[in-house]
Write a structure and sequence with these properties.
CATH topology of the largest domain: Rossmann fold
Helix content: 40-55%
Structural class: alpha/beta
Number of domains: 2
Oligomer: single chain
Number of strands: 5
Distance between the termini: 23 Å
Radius of gyration: 20 Å
Order of helices and strands: HEHHHEHEHEHHHE
Shape: globular
CATH class of the largest domain: Alpha Beta
């Protein structure tokens, strides 16, 4: 995956010697058509399955059920993806699931995903980030809520990185007009005004 969050890097470093399951999702409003409860839960299950060299028997059965006597295999249902996810979670003493920017999913997907995530085994540690959304809080019923604000230094570092990226349009524009770089940074810092997300 091209982009990874600091929390995933931290969890992997902290528990790299332990038998810990780690899976994560990055929700994106541009991918609402493909990011359904079915594909998101399936992605979490897939990441946990890939920890092992051998394909679990449950996955083989699921594959056979959806490919037998069909020219085109059918996708697994939400309950089937959820069952596979739960079967992988119980194989680990501890599992960390991270869902970033859940507010970017459409309402139906978010409601369905939250309903399923609330019913995972007790060994699951779930971290969800989102812009503040009272409806989402009702859906996930968090045990803890933490507001995270971006510092101006963080935002500035992010913007500098984007401008330095030769494949990014900002880089080409900044090359043409040297005064554009500080203008872009100062304008976005002014508009951000302590932009924050909430983690649950």
């Amino acid at each position: 995956m091209k982009y990874r969050s600091a929390v995933i890097d931290y969890i992997e470093r902290r528990f790299y010697k332990d038998d810990v399951g780690i899976a994560f999702l990055y929700c994106n409003y541009k991918e609402r058509d493909t990011q359904t409860a079915q594909t998101l839960i399936g992605s979490l299950a897939q990441q946990l399955v890939q920890r092992y060299p051998d394909v679990p028997s449950g996955l083989k059965v699921l594959y056979d059920d959806h490919s037998r006597n069909r020219q085109t295999p059918t996708p697994p249902t939400v309950p089937e993806c959820l069952q596979l996810l739960k079967s992988q979670i119980v194989c680990c003493p501890t599992t960390f699931l991270v869902v970033d920017a859940l507010d970017e999913c459409d309402d139906q997907t978010r409601r369905e995903l939250c309903a399923q995530l609330r019913n995972l085994p007790g060994s699951t540690h779930l971290l969800i980030t989102s812009r503040h959304n009272p409806e989402l809080e009702d859906q996930i019923r968090p045990s803890t809520r933490l507001e995270i604000r971006a510092s101006n230094k963080d935002i500035e570092m992010y913007l500098e990185d984007r401008i330095e990226n030769k494949e990014h349009r900002l880089n080409r524009l900044a090359q043409k007009d040297p005064e554009l770089r500080p203008l872009v940074i100062s304008t976005i810092l002014d508009k951000a005004q302590g932009m924050y997300v909430t983690s649950y």
